[in-house]
Each structure stands twice: as structure tokens, then as C-alpha cells.
Amino acid sequence: MICHVVLFRLRADLGRADRDALVRAFEVALRDIPTVRGCRVGRRITFGAGYEVNTPAAEYAALIDFDDLGALQDYLAHPAHHDLGARFGASVDTALVYDYEVREAGGLRALLAEW
């Protein structure tokens, strides 16, 4: 499985109408792009843990799952993603995007053996 990880911070001056347009574009992409297998979104929490890095760069996260690399590539090439990407680019102040091939937790040994 491939997990498309999007960490981002919205522009401080982003108005309600633009926020709503971003949400609509996201919803359309998730609905209309058939290779999306699942999606989770969240907002960063902090509670004083020693591993927390004091940076506002990633206030929000979107984790989008695909069966394989081809499915991710199909998602990225889809017109609904192009619309989302344009809206996203106009809406964020900072973003980091990473793609990971993920396995069940029991697969860590095999994953590390591949190094």
C-alpha cells in the first residue's frame, strides 16, 4: 500500500470562502478519483512530549491511501487532483508531501532487512 502524506499550514489570511472551496475540491477528488482507497485527516496536537518539534509548519495532515504506486500516479494525473492541487497551492503557507510504501507493523523486520 502507498500512503500519500500531506502536512500543511493554511495561509493566515485565507478567508472562509477559500477554505470552503479547498474542502469542496478535496471532497470531489476523494469522491471522483477511483484509486483512492482511504483517507484520514487531522490537526496537530501538542502536549509537552519530548519529541515535539516547535514548528507551525504542519498544523494539518491528510493521509491518503492507494493500493500501489500506479494508483497514486493515476490520482496525481486525474483532473480532480489538478483542481485540488491548484486550490491547495493557493491556500497553504507551507506544505510537505511525502509518499511511503507501508506495511502492517509486523513487516518492520522485513522492511529494515531491505536496507
What keywords describe this structure?
four-stranded antiparallel beta sheet; 4 helices; single chain; 115 residues; alpha+beta
Helix and strand topology:
Elements: E1 2-10, H1 16-32, E2 38-43, E3 60-66, H2 69-77, H3 79-91, E4 92-101, H4 108-113
Antiparallel strand pairs: 1-3, 1-4, 2-3
Helix pairs in contact: 1-3
Explain what you see.
This protein is an alpha+beta fold. The chain is 39% helix and 28% strand. It has 4 helices and 4 strands. It has a 4-stranded antiparallel beta sheet. Helix 1 (16-32) packs antiparallel against helix 3. It is flat, with a radius of gyration of 16 Å. The model has no long low-confidence stretch (mean pLDDT 92).
Task: Give a quick precis of the structure.
The chain is α+β, with helices and mostly antiparallel strands and 115 residues long. The chain has helices at 16-32, 69-77, 79-91, 108-113; strands at residues 2-10, 38-43, 60-66, 92-101.
